[in-house]
Amino acid sequence: MKGRSLFYKYLLSYLLIGSIPVIALGCILYINSVGQFQKEITSFHTEKLNQAQLNMDNSISSLLKVALQISMDSKLSPYSINEGYRAIETTTQIKKYKEGNPLIREIFLYYRNSDMLHTSSGSFSTDSFKEYMFNDFGWNKLYFLDQLNAADTLRFESPVTDDQQGAFTGRNTIAMFIPIPMYSSAPTGVVAIALQASMLTDTVQQVVGNSNSDTFILDDEGKFLAVDNRGIQIPQEQLSALIRQYQKPGIYDFEYHQTPYSYLVTRSEKTHWSLISIVPKNELFHSVNNLRYFMIIIFAAVALIAVSGAVYLSRRNYAPVRKLLYNISTLVRPGDAAEQPVGEWEVIQHTVSRTIETNRQLASKLDEQGPLIKELWYSRLLDGTPLEEEELLEVQRLTGWKGKKFVVAYLHFRGRSELEPGAKEALAAMYETLTFAGGQGCGVELHQEDAIALIVSLENVTEGKRMLAQKLLELNELASSKYLVQPIIGIGGIYERVSDIHRSFIEAKGVIQSFPHQDGARAIFFDEYFTISQEQFWYPLEEQVRLSQCLIHGDVALAEESIRQLFAKIAIMDHSLEMVRCIYYDIINMVIKTVNQLHAPNLQEEIRRLLQFHTAEQLESRLLSLCRKLCEHALQTKSMKNETLIAQIVAYIEEHCCDAALSLEAVAEHFGMTTSYLSKMFKQETNQTFTEHLKQFRLKEFKKGLVETNKSIKDLVVEIGYWDVPSFSRMFKQAEGMTPGDYRKLHTG
């Protein structure tokens, strides 16, 4: 057998059936779970950035509050701080405000039209500030002083250089310019609060919580106020391009050096600052990636289980196919191997087609041999050969017996042996089936006895017996007038079991044996004829007749049963010793007659010992021993007669096998018997039908001719009695598994 395409088809089918829902469900779960989780993480980080923006707004509000407190502090009014002795108090007061807010690096208080700057470190002239003070801020001091004089609204500046490079590197200090008095249209001074840019970005980082993120704070004009460029070190030019591209608050994706990043931006409604956070995408969505990998692992595990299940189911479903294919391969004959198709399904189809055709042929043969099989079963019932329970049920099904009581009628035909085979056939057909009110029956031909046995099923015993006798008398009258035969009828006892039919058969024959000279005008029932009234003298004639027939038929079990019943009845009868002794000698006389009738040799000693009995028990024991030997001899004689006849028939068939006219009818006519009886006997003795034996012998002769001669196949076919060469060639190939030509090549080299 080449390939396992059917197995792979099973596997592919199960994979498709299992994968479609798994993939669909997996995709839905993956998209929903990962997508939803990604949305939640995006929302979470956006909220954190908004929270950082809110914290920064609150910080700016706290700084404005400090400026408001300074503007309202009387100790820091322009009149108070201009008094020379108040300089230390001014410094102390400003220092107090500075230390009250950790974001403040320094506070500058400046009143216009004044040349002094007041800080937590002291009060200085603007010239001193420009030359010596706060150089570590990295400011452009002239620009800072200009802003002090020009600021009329709240402003934030990173007064480093014009190119803002210091702000972008994150090393700058931001200046918050707040005109005072606050909310005045004509401010007289400015509170400048210096903020370390890193303090703002650190505040954002604490909220955002991404160690590798970059943070950028831009003012309302898009200038960099604070930068924490610790992660990707993105250039200012590219960052400026991103800012121009993504201005609206949200999350955006971009790549830098082939690495994906997420760009988060939010804008303050209070300060109009933009807060930007750039995070590596795999870090931002680290949990999403973990979930994605987890679901991929789960999906792979489910896929593996599905594949394993598909393989298991495929192997399980393929197992009967594999076993069937193996059985087919073991049954393929060498000649058929070349014709076997390659595909598994094609092999099965081919085999099923051949099986159906073979079954059709067998059914046809069964229809042809059905009557023969029934005849064989009927013969076994009459002979007392046990049938299996299934066979008994099949017999009742085939016959259609409705009655629950069974009886056998034995019809002996005087003058039947002189009839032609055709007349014998027609006579047997008259009694083949029997139907009457209250019962039905079927006939079994007994060729060697010139008799027919009718197995009858009765639905009602009393009415059935009367109608049976009437029907048989009508048939006998018709047979006498048409075929000039003289039938006499004996009917056995009635029994409930099918297995007791042979008892009724023996009793029916016993009636004919006891009254051989009766005419056919009446039917004699075994149980009625031997029944006597209580007043009459009892004599065991019924038991003797039954025993005699058992011995003739070789039924040892029924013979032993009859002997025991016979002696049991004699023992309970009230007769004189002389009368009992006469009965015993009459039984011995009947047995001796049966011995002579069966021509049983070497039984003189047993008969002598039988005559020298002293007790009833001794006679019964010796009689049982003798009966066993008689039954064995009867069976051997019957078997030898059948074997002799079958040997003659087989020899005749083999002698005339090349005759195309040889047939069952021709052989039956030659041996003076009916075709049905010949078929039944041939099947019973050879376990083959006549047709099977003839076909087998002709095939044997044909194969012998193929090997031993050089004659053409056509000539050999004609020689064995066939004319249709193609039909014979097909039959030969079916029987041998190869053509006649291949057989000749194989056996002749």
From TrEMBL:
The chain crosses the membrane at residues 12-31, 293-313. Residues 647-746 form the HTH araC/xylS-type domain. Pfam families: HTH_18. InterPro entries: Homeodomain-like_sf, HTH_AraC. Keywords: DNA-binding, Membrane, Transcription, Transcription regulation, Transmembrane, Transmembrane helix. It comes from the Bacteria. GO terms for molecular function: DNA-binding transcription factor activity; sequence-specific DNA binding. SUPFAM superfamilies: Homeodomain-like (SSF46689). PANTHER family: ARAC-FAMILY TRANSCRIPTIONAL REGULATOR, HTH-TYPE TRANSCRIPTIONAL ACTIVATOR RHAS. This is AraC family transcriptional regulator. The lineage of its organism: Bacteria, Bacillati, Bacillota, Bacilli, Bacillales.
